[in-house]
């Protein structure tokens, strides 16, 4: 059974018989409708906001940076304090072990007769190396690294905090 | 003019001037977008401020293959919804849950009729348009704003709204019909 579809209100006599032409008309109509709505929304009343908003956002960013800087300064100060406290027993341990292993004797010989040590370093280098307490030395170097790194980073955050305080005083 | 992407690269390196430039480009757009959700002007200003602060805070998460404008509008929408949720002035369900997202066949039929030219001659058109949009759901208003005012594609809007593109198209279609009906009804009055 054949069926025909007629659009409501459409005059069949004026309907284009060519489907490509009909499609083009539909597309043109859609584009025209879209332009029409775009034109309508150009009339949408835009509200202006206070110019201070950007200043307020920047101030908030600076505040956030200052809070972060304070946190990091406290963190690095704590790590320096802990490292310094740890240094005391580690250095004490290093001294005890070096006196037992003979490293202290080599060091005192180096202090009293450095030229002899320099001339015969090939013969005594191996025994000096074996007398070094590796674990304690590594610990001391590690602690020094922690302190140096915390000082470097902490100084940077102190600089950020100073900048913020300076800006705050100016404003 | 420096592109958004170039400015973002500078912001990531800690350039505050570049961030200020980005803000001045979008502050007005974001404020008007947030006004579709938060009606009180002062509150919309606060939400705009929060939005830009979040943009700065999460800038490192912004990847090079992303588009800045949809990302910015997503943050703005989420911030506005969070604000409404916290304030509880509006029940959250009216924003998120009560929407009928079902895809209707009627929504696929385009409204191909352009608006009548005499409509544009009306002096109070701006206020009438604002009035016609008042009763729409905030998300639906935003869809119209983003599509016609911000020139965003349905794909971008769907990404911002976190909804399928057909849903967004459906919202767009329904909202247009409502706005058109209201404007035409006022015309006959």
Account of the 3D structure:
The complex is a heterodimer of chains A (171) and B (189). Chain A is mainly α and 171 residues long. Chain A has a domain at 78-170. Chain A has helices at 19-41, 52-101, 103-112, 114-119, 121-131, 134-170. In chain A, α2 runs antiparallel to α6. The longest helix of chain A is centred in the middle third of the chain and has 50 residues, at 52-101. Chain A is elongated and about 105 Å long. With 189 residues, chain B is mainly α. Chain B has 2 domains: 4-93, Orthogonal Bundle (Rna Polymerase Sigma Factor, Chain: A); 109-188, Arc Repressor Mutant, subunit A (Orthogonal Bundle), CATH 1.10.10.10. Chain B is 67% helix and 0% strand. Chain B has 10 helices and no strands. In chain B, α3 (41-57) packs across α4, α7 (125-134) crosses α10 (165-188) and α8 packs across α10 (165-188). The radius of gyration of chain B is 18 Å and the shape is elongated. The interface between A and B is medium-sized, with 28 and 37 residues.
Fourth-level CATH superfamily of the largest domain in chain B? RNA polymerase sigma factor, region 2, helix turn helix motif
Secondary structure tally: strands of chain A:
0
CATH class of the largest domain in chain B: Mainly Alpha
The percent of residues in helical segments of chain A reads over 70%
The ordered string of helix (H) and strand (E) elements of chain A is: HHHHHH
Per DSSP E runs of 2 or more residues, the count of β-strands of chain B stands at: 0
CATH architecture of the largest domain in chain B: Orthogonal Bundle
- Assign the CATH topology of the largest domain in chain B: Rna Polymerase Sigma Factor, Chain: A
| Helix percent band of chain B | 55-70%
- Element string of chain B (H = helix, E = strand): HHHHHHHHHH
User: Low-confidence parts of chain A, pLDDT < 50 over ≥5 residues?
Assistant: 1-15
**Based on CA inertia axes, which overall geometry of chain B fits?**
elongated
- End-to-end distance of chain B, in Å? 48 Å
Number of domains of chain B: 2
| Mean pLDDT over the residues of chain A | 79
**Bulk shape of chain A:** elongated
Derived structural class of chain B: mainly alpha
